[in-house]
Amino acid sequence: MAATTVLPRPKAYDDTFFKPISIWLTTTDHKLIGIMYMVTGILSFILAGIFALIIRLQLSQPNLTVVDAETYNQLISAHGVTMIFFFVTIFLTGIANYMVPIMIGARDMAFPRVNLLGFWLIPVSIILYYSGFFTGGALNAGWTGYAPLTEKAYQSHSLGVDFWALSIIVWAISGIMASTNFLTTIIALRAPGMKLTRMPLFVWAQISTSILLLVVGAPLAAAMILLEFDRQLGTQFFTTQGRPVLYQHLFWFFGHPEVYIMILPGFGMISEIVPVFARKPIFGYMSMVAALFGIVFLSMTVWAHHMFTVGMNTYVEGFFMLMTMLIAVPTGIKFFNWIATTWWGSVEFTVPMKFAWGFLATFLIGGITGVYLASVPVDTQLHQSYYVVAHLHYVLFGGSVFTIFAGIYYWFPKITGRMLNKTLGEWNFWTLFVGFNGTFLIMHTLGLEGMPRRIATYANPAWGTTNMIITFSSFLIAFSVLLFLINVIRSWNGGEIAGDDPWLANTLEWATTSPPPPYNFERVPPVRSFMPLRDLREARGEPAEPVPALSS
Amino acid sequence: MIAVIGRGRLPLSVLGLVAAAFLLSSCEGLGGISPIFPTPVSPNGQGIYNTYIGISIPAIIIFIGVEAALLWVVLRYRRSKQPVGYVPPQIHDHRTLEISWTIAPLIVVLAIAGYSFVELQKDFLPITNQQMTVVVSGHQFGWDYRYENGIVIHQEGTLAGDVTPFVVPTHTLVKLQFQGTDVIHSWWVPAISGKTDAVPGYDNYSWLKIDEPGKWRGECAELCGAGHGTMQIIVQAMDQHDYDIWVRVQQSGQHAAAPSGTSLG
After folding, report:
1. Among A339, B4, B37, B201, which has the minimal tally of Cβ within 10 Å of its Cβ?
2. Residue B167 and residue B145: Cα distance in Å, rounded?
3. Is the domain of B105 the same as that of B182?
4. Which pLDDT band holds residue B28 (cuts at 50, 70, 90)?
């Protein structure tokens, strides 16, 4: 970082991560809680990734028995639950927990002890879920856990489903706590001058995410409670004698907004990263905010597009199809605005910017296949096939995971005070990009040829080679993640000192030290626009958008 | 070496990816890489096929356009391509541009939704002009087919897929009535049409009309337990003469010779 003055880090914060365990257990500091959320998320990512590798080994050739069908069903369920509930959502809550108060110039979250409780419910939730493995088998009905397969009549041998349902209820309570806390913090604790229209777009994304989780967390818990009534009290809500499809409605009323809970913070991160590395302000700030709320509204009106084969009235299906396709409009606005931000810019493709661009290139595919899936007639072919597996990984991996990596490479210097290694970062990006597309691109065509998802094995010899390529590529992803972990551990201990503002960025978190002191700011800088640090540079008589020489 | 990939040589690596994808797609005899469904043999499958093609036209144009714009930023606006000391223009928004890229996608998705809705009304309503009805019921792990003339076919699942075929006559509009008996299953033969769920508690409907004799494979598409992957389906269409013989054989209680699953069309 040639243009940055390298300051010695203040001694007091130097050992941020090597504190006594009692401090980690009892802290109400949003930054430490944020780090714990993020570490929990990454550990879940590794675990669920290992499950994915076993799944891929099992599918690499026809008629394999690496694991038996029952174990396979538990593995795919654990992979989905862990990735969605314990990795992506948790990691994003963590990074927001760390960044949102600093970005709005606050000292901590509005309810620090609720924050503490909300975080510690997550390990409880994870332990509850994995306890299922010791009761004769964990959840084996996919992460969606459709009734009546999860009902007692078809699960008599184990309590895995009960532990899953309890785990999800605890998780939903934690999510509702975190969302309330975020909304209160953002509404009430902004620094002087930080009007709503001057907030970083990442903070706006966190508002929209929190609203979504507040609205849909309770119906999810309700579905789980009704399922437990069925299983333990003998009610007939979702049983073969009841209304199995009601479960799907309740689940997807949570499940589809959950997709946006996992991607909107990523959109926010991209909106932070792209302007900094293009040396231009974000294009269309207000339309970016409007698009976020457009997505929030629409995402709550589309849940039944997961249910086009259950046999609904075709006009109802038409409604859900139309609303689903309309989401392409606000998402398109965001895409065009990001591209317009870099147009005529001076774009430096640092590692976070590479991940941002990798996100745009791959998420586009997930968005377009989403329109195919929204079309009811086409969906009846694609639904529950490997096409859907490919689509959802383009959205969740190409979307959420790429933005998470972008965010880590962007904010790691702020959190640890040290830069991540650039060479390892480049390797991390390219192996991930190639491995990801190698894994999921040809999955689309497998689905088109008739391979359903969630089958433990297949007899069709024609699918063998394709599945082998997918399995090979999935190990490239694992290699890439390994590079990432090595990079994090090495850089955390001995990376280049970052200084306060290594990227010459625009938002408040870069005004304080890296890592920030427990109280965040000695003095919050004046906020006169949505780019306070740019204003500071201007006030000091420096160029507002300095174009540094290419780094390294 | 990685620095070379990182800077300057990016177009090369992109070209490499495209070349690899092209090589992959031109491999002969490699299954699972068709960019579209199997050739449909039933009119409703053909309708879905046409809708897929119809959506693909704007989808491919948008895909190429946006990826090209992303690539153009990489090629043209990267810092190393800009003159030394270049300070980008500080543009915040552009009303006309923003309105136009809101309206244009709106028109495209409305067109796709309308086009899809027409197909939905054409092929997805329960039919009343059927020539015969078969009740298809799913169970763990197999399918039962009950014909109006009393014949019942038990299609018990096997992983190898050598299951008893579900036989229909050619040139006949067959209404399929789906019932669930335990958990939810989903009946899917890609060459015929999309899936229909067999849900306990109510009936679902689909139909097929096949004009050429042959056999087509499918399987259950909704996770239904440990045997999910074994719930294989074979649909066999026979011309009326063969079908009548098959019906007589079934009704006389004889067991039809187990057909091999190896010569599927």
Report:
1. B4
2. 9
3. no
4. very low
State whether A384 and B183 contact (CB < 8 Å): no
**What total number of domains does chain B contain?**
2
Helix (H) or strand (E) holding A17: none
Q: Are residues B53 and B163 in the same domain?
A: no
What are the DSSP calls for A264-323, one per residue? HHHHHHHHHHHHHHHTSPPTTHHHHHHHHHHHHHHHTT-GGGG-TTS---HHHHHHHHHH
Question: B250: distance to nearest CA of chain A, Å?
Answer: 29
What number of residues does chain A have? Answer: 552
Q: What CATH number does residue B42 fall under?
A: 1.10.287
Residue for token pair 């090629």: B75
pLDDT per position as a tens digit, A47-99: 999 999 999 999 999 999 999 999 999 999 999 999 999 999 999 999 999 99
A102, A509 contact by CB (below 8 A)? yes
Q: Are residues B159 and B209 in the same domain?
A: yes
Residues of A in contact with B113 (CB under 8 A): 318, 321-322, 325, 374-375
Structure tokens at A400: 């959420």
Contacts of B36 in chain A (CB under 8 A): 448
Rounded Cα gap, residues B187 and B195, in angstroms: 5
Work out the minimum CA distance from B251 to partner chain A, whole angstroms.
32
**Residue B139: other Cβ atoms inside 10 A:** 19
Is B108 in the same domain as B145? no
pLDDT at residue B261 in the model? 41
Which among A247, A301, A380, A427 is the top mutation candidate for probing chain B, defined by the most B β-carbons within 10 Å of its own β-carbon?
A: A380
The pLDDT assigned to A8 comes to: 53
Closest CA to B197 of B189, B205, B32: B205
For residue B151, the SS3 value is coil
Distance of residue B239 Cα from the nearest chain A Cα, in angstroms: 26
Instruction: Tell me: pLDDT of A4 over 80.
Output: no
| CA trace torsion B38, B44, B50, B56 (10° rounding) | -70
Rounded to two decimals, the pTM is 0.92
Q: Is residue B236 within a helix (H) or strand (E), and if so which, with residue range?
A: strand B232-238
Cα Rg, chain A, nearest whole Å = 23
CATH code, B144: 2.60.40.420
pLDDT tens digit string along A166-215?
Answer: 999 999 999 999 999 999 999 999 999 999 999 999 999 999 999 999 99
* A310/B204 CB distance under 8 A: yes
**What ranges do the domains of chain A cover?**
26-539
Residue B215: helix, strand or coil by DSSP? strand
In a domain, B7, yes or no: yes
Distance CA B22, CA B27 (A): 9
Site of tokens 């996770």: B223
- Does the beta-carbon distance from A427 to B48 stay under 8 Å? no
Do B247 and B161 belong together in one domain? yes
B150 and B210 assigned to the same domain: yes
A26-539 CATH:
1.20.210.10
**A323 vs A215: CA distance, rounded Å:** 18
Residues B119 and B136 in one domain: no
